Amino acid sequence: MRYFFHIAYQGQYFSGWQRQPNVKSVQEVIEQTLSKILKTPITIFGCGRTDAHVHASQFFFHADILTEIDFDLLYILNKALPPTIAIFDIIKMDGLPHARFDAVQRKYDYFIHTYKDPFLNSQSSYYHEQNLDVHKMKEVVNLLPKYKDYKAFCTHPDKYEHTICNVMEADLLIDKNGDRIRFYIASNRFLGKMIRILMGKILLVGKGELSKDEFESYLINLQTPKLLLPAHPTGLYLSKVTYPYLDLKPRTEFLSAKQGADWFSV
Predict the structure, then answer these.
(1) Active site residue 51
(2) Which residues of 183-197 are buried (b: 16+ CB within 10 A; e: fewer)?
(3) Quick one: which residues bind substrate (predicted)?
(4) Percent of the chain with pLDDT over 70
(5) How many C-beta neighbours within 10 Å does residue 172 have?
(6) How many CA within 13 A on the CB side of residue 195?
(7) Chain centroid to CA 123: how far?
(8) Can you list the positions of beta strands (E) in the chain?
(9) Annotated binding residue at 108?
């Protein structure tokens, strides 16, 4: 029987979602815990592959379990997992839906704070930039839904069959004090480090080191910049995953990265 698991995790303690040799991944921790509880080897399949130290405030994976779950697996699994991983829902599915290939939209949020704050540093990226031109940054963010090919904003475009991403929404928001920034983007798919590379270039625009025309030229000419300079991973969250048959509201509000902030579109 196939089950979907609705979860969230703090990524700063892991080397990404995907199982890899000699490092701790979210997938490995969950597989080991599930296998121990169910007393049989369990392989799980995630809805995506977050980078090392990237968070997920909403994430799904699926697992095939031979018998129907007739005990409180949600409670037992949450007790056994570290506090950095939370299981919100376990959903029995009809047929064999796939957590990764069936997703029709993924949303990410990237948070920046421009002052040192020990309570934000693990959940938002600290950039000591006091004079960012957020209006110029917003101008280039508004370009993103107008283009489909993101070859120029990917570390290894040749490993993909294509680099087309249907970016449906993109926005830049700021808090009431003007010292915290939130970049939001939604698409059917994303390429390797695409959002962090975009954020790095958007910051250069804000600092006056890259013009709107230069930024747009990457989208038009599809030429990879000589320096990609991805933004820090810490501020990035996979924040929403939508399926044709499953659309759940996220259960967490990005912890203190969002608490207490009134966000306004620039």
Answers:
(1) yes
(2) bbbbbebbbbbbbbb
(3) 108
(4) 97
(5) 22
(6) 29
(7) 12
(8) 2-9, 44-46, 55-64, 85-92, 105-113, 125-126, 167-175, 180-187, 236-242, 263-265
(9) yes
